């Protein structure tokens, strides 16, 4: 082979090698890029949409496991589902202790703790009264005052007894009944995030109604950015009055703009004060809580809404949780722990130091 031919062959081999390297780089880049794309899904459970965005090689499996975990939880704790732990507990009210799933026992214990420490502002035994109002149902209406007074006698967290070690619970009096709607969606976020961790997801965010769970670090390293809904935005759920940038945690919001009806010119919301049996009148229209667990954030959001600014902030501090409270006169109170994370974006509101 002459020298010129050798050079041509060598050049061709060099070009081929470069092309192969380039192809390998492109394939690897496309694979990496695909891995960075999240898997998103939307299902329906717990009476709400369950929305997920999950990152990592096992993102689809993790999202599927999380959805299954949420459904299992609903089957255990929904009072509407025949044979659930809570349905059986309500049916056995005033009789004996019943065996329940350890997960249900743990959740009932959490609910009881918040009820006790909030002096009943959050009360899982609210069902006898909330059923009268039927918020979100086909027969939502203002009950007669005599009815509210009668059924309020069945409400009282002191009637609930939980033995976590034995996985048993009981209701002391006949007529008492549990509704975990004020803690269940947050608990669903706990269940989903646990599945992300166990299934090998790199990161994920799950939203169940007004509760959100955050897991891991986003691929681009940025914080999770959440909008705080503008309570004056009407039906526009996407309109935010502020932003929260968080690395992790659980977030729940309770607002008087959800599940409302108007009767005789007056609007009623679903956040009932257990002490009166009527919608809470604390001066607040929205409460967003950031806490170490979804269940805690959910129950605290309800409790703080009922308690109002001063007592609500004190309760958050007691639990080491943070909050963004919006008042009827458009003032915004932010816990010290969230002041660097929260950004007010609407000039309709005034940030109170």
From TrEMBL:
It catalyses: L-threonyl-[protein] + FAD = FMN-L-threonyl-[protein] + AMP + H(+). Keywords: FAD, Flavoprotein, Magnesium, Metal-binding, Transferase. It comes from the Bacteria. InterPro entries: ApbE (IPR024932), ApbE-like_sf (IPR003374). One of its GO terms (molecular function) is transferase activity. The keyword Coiled coil does not apply. It holds the Pfam family ApbE. Its EC number is 2.7.1.180. Its cofactor is Mg(2+). Belongs to the ApbE family. This is FAD:protein FMN transferase. It comes from Anaeromassilibacillus senegalensis. The lineage of its organism: Bacteria, Bacillati, Bacillota, Clostridia, Eubacteriales.
